[in-house]
């Protein structure tokens, strides 16, 4: 964040992370599971709280930064179902969830590839779906998310700006193209009320209204 304009840095750190999140963030960066930035995490907590989310799916557990933010916004009896292909990332995420006091049935970790696991989850059974795994699979996550969400539920995607590459039409690498394509799909989907939140690396959120 050092090179960001002052207002952007102020917004990003407006809600500072506690030691639990800072430690989870450090572990995520060390093992190559880059966590959502603090502003995006705070936005997730806000969204979960605004809809009193009880059942949330996370695609890309990483080391638990986004999961802790989500759980802190969810109802106290809510369950986070989080999918990741790397067991070591989920082991470190479990450590963060325990440190944050989210034990027992509050977190269901599923190890596996997202596109293998998601079809096993119930139609319309979830209040919020957060996507943060393989960027090239984002349009598949979008399709699965709309199936998983109840009416009025929210889908959110991290990295909607993808390091400012999405906004630059000359950038045509597969990840950038996939995130750009996702943006168009969400923006033009009449079943959704979308919002691109320019915090962190961009959080694309949408309410399933239709
Ligand atoms: C950007 S990190 C997630 C960070 C996490 N959301 C956070 O804020 O702490 C992406 C994670 O997605 C996982 N991943 C990548 N491709 C995947 C796939 N196809 N299925 C499931 N998980 C995947 C990686 O192992 C990694 O832990």
How would you describe this protein?
It is built from eight helices and seven strands; from the N terminus they run αααβαβαβαβαβαββ. α4 links the parallel β1 (55-59) and β2. The protein is globular. It has a seven-stranded mixed β-sheet, with helices on both faces. The chain starts with 5 loop residues before the first helix and ends with a strand. The longest helix has 15 residues, at 174-188. It has one domain (4-208): 3-Layer(aba) Sandwich (Rossmann fold), CATH 3.40.50.150. It has helices at 6-12, 19-31, 38-50, 65-73, 87-99, 114-117, 138-148, 174-188; strands at 55-59, 79-84, 107-111, 126-131, 149-158, 192-197, 203-208. α2 (19-31) packs antiparallel against α5 and α3 packs parallel to α4 (65-73). It is of the alpha/beta class and 210 residues long. The protein binds S-adenosylmethionine. Residues 28, 33-36, 60-66, 83-86, 89, 113-114, 132-134, 137 line the site of S-adenosylmethionine (SAM).
